[in-house]
Amino acid sequence: MIQDIKLLKTEILSDNWYTLRKITFQYKKRNGEIITQVREAYDRGNGATILLYNQEKKSVILTRQFRLPTYTNGNETGMMIEACAGLLDQENPEDCIRRETEEETGYQVNNIEKVFEAYMSPGSVTEILYFFIAAYSKEMKVSEGGGVAHEEENIEVMEISFDQALEMIYSGEIKDAKTIMLIQYLKLKGIF
User: Fold this and answer.
1) Do residue 137 and residue 77 come from a single domain?
2) In degrees to the nearest 10, what's the CA dihedral of 100, 105, 110, 114?
3) How far apart are CA 167 and CA 176, in angstroms?
4) Are 115 and 185 in contact (CB under 8 A)?
5) What's the CATH code of the domain at 182?
6) Mean pLDDT of 109-126
7) Backbone dihedral region of 150: left (phi > 0), alpha (psi from -120 to 50 degrees) or beta?
8) Which of 38, 89, 137, 151 is the most buried (most CB within 10 A)?
9) pLDDT tens, 157-183?
10) Is residue 4 a contact partner of residue 27, using CB atoms and an 8 Å limit?
11) Is residue 83 within 8 Å of 165, Cβ to Cβ?
12) Is the entire prediction scored with pTM above 0.90?
């Protein structure tokens, strides 16, 4: 166990898209020894994600879009299948995910349920992600979705069976952690 954590120095390495900081800190170990370390932390803000499901149709709504980091790490097309998500941008998580759901999927959801919060990569990224689920029906579809044009999101909306979504995890077609977590949450809770 460590204690008496002190931030000694913070340098901004990049403030281009988000903020990358180099942080020098020290802490005291259990035996009293003082340790100094230097780490980098990437701050992109906090986010929210949601999985829409329809119990009657036994289906879920997912999105597909290009993700540069996956492309540069060996994903041939860079396309990722994901649950709808977005950054909070000063909003509370519930308002954020309602807005993102409508922008990305075209569905205007009413009753959203928060299921948990998680740090997705706590060794290097500051972001905490708020996870939600919500039932959807065709009556809730208010637009085509696809994201906001000026953000160049180019999102494809996918309605697929829950069983197919599970199979896509096992086959490797779905590799996005937040999406896997939400699909498995529905399975564990017996929603279908």
Assistant:
1) yes
2) -60
3) 14
4) yes
5) 3.90.79.10
6) 95
7) alpha
8) 137
9) 999 999 999 999 999 999 999 999 999
10) yes
11) no
12) yes
Q: Check whether residue 100 and residue 23 sit in a common domain.
A: no
* Sequence-ordered strand ranges (E) for the chain: 3-14, 19-28, 34-43, 47-54, 59-66, 79-82, 84-87, 112-119, 128-135, 156-161
Cα–Cα distance, 92 to 185 (Å, whole number) = 23
Residue 129 and residue 66 share a domain:
yes
Residue with tokens 């399975």: 187
Distance CA 174, CA 157 (A): 14
Domain span holding position 75: 47-189
Q: Which helix (H) or strand (E) holds 29?
A: none
In the chain, the number of structural domains is: 2
For residue 164 the two structure tokens come to 């197919």
